[in-house]
């Protein structure tokens, strides 16, 4: 397949028009007519992922996070991101990003997260898109059987890749959890939506102290906070399957298992 064909397939799955206006999605670098045989999926476009792509002899890297989210005036090799661009171009490795357009897709990032932590049956958006109620940020669903908050936190930790942060929760450990809202990545903007949805627990990432404290003091759902990278990683396998199906078996694909979460050390201190 040509890169242009693969990009067309990806943009059919995750239309760029679904991305937020501030986002930077789509093809970052790559020659449209270049052949693509191997594709690597990863959350972050960082040096370790490019190393993996070169070892794999991948022709394309598909990441969730953008490399160049904010406007730049150049990509000199004297900067970290510039070095990545130069390495990829020199080695004929293309880069494609699906970010907020993958967040709101059906299925998208939060669907994969919901399944990873044990939500079964039908899922619905936590914050539906105005033009299509099937799409939107976050998902709400039910566990196959009720768990305590302590048990659900352990279920989430077991279903997500391990990170230095792990999974933490705010709420009564014995609280019964049946209905859960999830949002892959930073989800504190949806705290009010989680309360309005009447869920028992809300799982997301990057929750800050004051909003979380005020939320629990007001009697909202229990909060479950996981590492940002870990909540988005499950989507990679779903995107891989969908692209492989669209390509009809003409691509070799792999999901990176490199832990590229920003935090890599955890110490609980002296008890």
Describe what you observe in this structure.
The protein is an alpha/beta fold and 271 residues long. It has two domains: 123 residues, NIF3 (NGG1p interacting factor 3)-like (Udp-n-acetylmuramoylalanyl-d-glutamate--2,6- Diaminopimelate Ligase, Chain: A, domain 1, 3-Layer(aba) Sandwich); 121 residues, Udp-n-acetylmuramoylalanyl-d-glutamate--2,6- Diaminopimelate Ligase, Chain: A, domain 1 (3-Layer(aba) Sandwich). The chain is 33% helix and 27% strand. It contains ten helices and eleven strands. It has a six-stranded mixed beta sheet with strand order 5-6-8-9-10-7. Strands 1-4-3-2-11 form a five-stranded mixed beta sheet, sandwiched between helices. Strand 8, helix 7 and strand 9 form a beta-alpha-beta unit. Helix 1 packs across helix 10 and helix 5 crosses helix 10. The model has no long low-confidence stretch (mean pLDDT 96). This is GTP cyclohydrolase 1 type 2 homolog. It holds the Pfam family DUF34_NIF3. Homohexamer. Belongs to the GTP cyclohydrolase I type 2/NIF3 family.
Task: Describe this structure in a few short sentences.
With about 270 residues, this protein is of the alpha/beta class. About 35% of the residues lie in helices and about 25% in strands. The chain has two domains: about 5-100 and about 235-255, NIF3 (NGG1p interacting factor 3)-like (Udp-n-acetylmuramoylalanyl-d-glutamate--2,6- Diaminopimelate Ligase, Chain: A, domain 1), CATH 3.40.1390; about 105-225, Udp-n-acetylmuramoylalanyl-d-glutamate--2,6- Diaminopimelate Ligase, Chain: A, domain 1 (3-Layer(aba) Sandwich).
């Amino acid at each position: 397949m040509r890169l242009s064909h693969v990009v067309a397939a990806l943009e059919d799955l995750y239309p760029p028009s679904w991305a937020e206006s501030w986002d930077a999605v789509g093809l970052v670098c790559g020659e449209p007519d270049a052949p693509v045989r191997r594709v690597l999926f990863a959350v972050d476009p960082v040096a370790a992922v490019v190393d993996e792509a070169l070892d794999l002899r991948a022709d394309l890297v598909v990441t969730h996070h953008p490399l160049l989210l904010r406007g730049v005036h150049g990509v000199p090799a004297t900067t970290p991101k510039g070095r990545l661009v130069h390495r990829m171009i020199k080695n004929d490795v293309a880069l494609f990003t699906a970010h907020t357009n993958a967040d709101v897709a059906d299925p998208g990032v939060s669907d994969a997260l919901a399944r990873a932590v044990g939500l079964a049956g039908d899922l619905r958006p936590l914050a539906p898109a105005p033009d299509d109620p099937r799409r939107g940020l976050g998902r709400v669903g039910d566990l196959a059987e009720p768990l305590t908050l302590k048990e659900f936190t352990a279920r989430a930790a077991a279903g997500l890749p391990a990170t230095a942060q792990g999974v933490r929760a705010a709420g009564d450990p014995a609280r019964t959890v049946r209905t859960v809202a999830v949002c892959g990545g930073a989800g504190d903007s949806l705290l009010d939506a989680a309360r309005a949805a009447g869920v028992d627990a809300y799982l997301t990432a990057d929750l800050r102290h004051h909003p979380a404290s005020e939320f629990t003091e007001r009697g909202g759902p229990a909060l479950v906070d996981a590492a940002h990278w870990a909540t988005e990683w499950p989507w990679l396998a779903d995107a891989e399957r969908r692209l492989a199906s669209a390509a009809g078996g003409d691509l070799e694909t792999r999901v990176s298992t490199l832990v590229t979460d920003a935090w890599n050390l955890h110490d609980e201190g002296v008890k």
